[in-house]
Give the backbone structure.
Amino acid sequence: SRLLLVRRKLESEKQLAQQKSLQLEESEQRWRKLFEDSRQASLLIEDSRFVAANRASLRMLGLAHPDQLIGRAVLDISPPCQSDGQPSARKFDEYRQTACSEGSSEFEWQHLRASGEPFTAQVLLTAIQYGNKVLLHVVWNDITEQKRAEAELADYQRDLERRVAGRTAELSAVSESLGTANAELYTILDA
């Protein structure tokens, strides 16, 4: 009877352990699906190398399979220098250090698609302590079209300002000429 009680207790604990294991597995699958299926491009970096990437990130880079990115360094998909002329290696190290010391870092970054085409991404880099390692969670958005539109708008604004300044100078010259002609007319009429 005592043996039977011990056996039932062990079976109960075994069932509980199996149930908890199943719940943990379901939770992991749910979070993996959330990461992989999200339309928000996300990646994980460990030791400056990609260890996970969702489908949205692969699409953004023009890649078909995760193994085309996993294991590669951040600098493998970056030009040698960023748009401000600074070396990508130095800038990434600065942003990584900021994320590790402050929890996160947000910045614009020039990347290269698989085709070699450059694009600009708005990046949020978040440091996550995982055991004795630090993972960097990357959330990024392609802002190339936004940057192009901003540059186009700035060009249009400069052109408009140039035209307004030119037209203002023309009107000022005409106004001055009219003032001179008006003064001459009064001189003639007063005589």
Q: What stands out?
A: The chain has a mean pLDDT of 91. The chain is about 55% helix and 25% strand. The helical segments are 2-37, 55-61, 88-102, 144-190. The first strand starts at residue 41 and ends at 46.
